[in-house]
Amino acid sequence: MIPLSWYLILAAVLFSVGMFGAISRKNAVAVLISIELMLNAVNINILAFWHYHSQSLGYTEINGLVFAAVVIIAAAAEVAIGLAIIIAVYRLRKTVVASDINVLKG
Amino acid sequence: MTPLQIVFILVSLVTILSAIFVVSLRKIFHAALWLIVTLMGVAIIFALLEASFFAAVQILVYIGAIAIILIFAIMLTRNIMSDDEIQINRSWGIVMLLVLIFAVIFISQLSSSAVISTTLVPLEFQGQESIIAFGEGLLDPAGYALPFELASLLLLGALVGGVYIAMDKKGGENK
Lengths: 106, 175
Hints:
The complex is a heterodimer. Chain A has helices spanning about 5-25, 30-55, 65-95; one strand at about 1-5. By secondary structure, chain A is mostly helical. Classes of the chains: A mainly alpha, B mainly alpha. β1 (about 1-5) of chain A pairs antiparallel with β1 (about 120) of chain B, so a sheet runs across the interface.
C-alpha cells in the first residue's frame, strides 16, 4: 500500500545525488560510480510505473520490464567501456583526474 | 502506517544516506563499498515493487559484476590520486545549488500533480506469471525479439571494444 509518489520522490533524490557526484567529483572512476546511481534512480522510476500500469490493466505489462532490462544492459556495457578508457588513459597520461585529461582541448 | 510503508521508509533512508556517502567520501575505495549498500537498497525497493526478477538481476549484475569491476579499476589506479586530496572540484557550490533547484522543482511538480494520490496495490496475478510473460515477450518476433538480439550485440561490442581499448598496443615494457 505504498503510494506511487514515494517511489518517484526516492528516485528524484537518488538522481539528484548522483547528478551532484557526476558533475563535481574529480576522479573519473567516481564520476562513473555517480552515473551508476543515476541509472539506478531511472530504473526505480521505470519499475514503479510498470507496477502502476500493470495494476490498472490487470495483467502483466511487459514494456516496462523490457525498458528496465535495456537500462541494465546499457549500464553494464557503459561501465566496461568507461573503465577500459580510464585504464588506457591512465597508462598514457598517468592520471585519473577528469579535468587533467585535456588532449582534445582547443 | 502499514509495516510495508515502514520498511520502505527505512530502506529508502539507508539508500539515500549511503548514496550521499558515495558522492562525498574522500576515500574512493570506501565510496565504492558504500555504493554496494546503495545498490542493495535499490534491490530491496525492486522487491517491494514486486519486480522479483529485477531484484535478483540487480544483485547479480550490479553488485556481482559492476561494483566488483569498479573496485578493480580503483585498485589499479589507486596510487595516482591520494586519499587526502580534495575529491570535488572548485565549483561544487554552484553544482549543489543547481542540483537542489532541480530536486525542489521536481518534487514540487510531483506533489502538485494528480499522481500524488495514487497508491500501488499488490498485483492480482501471483507467482511467476510476470516473469513468464517477460520471457515470452523477449523471444516473440512480434514483440521484443529484435531489441533482445541488439542488446546481445551491444554487449558483445562492449566486450571486444573494452579488450581492444585496454590492450597494451606497444607490446609492453614489463613483459
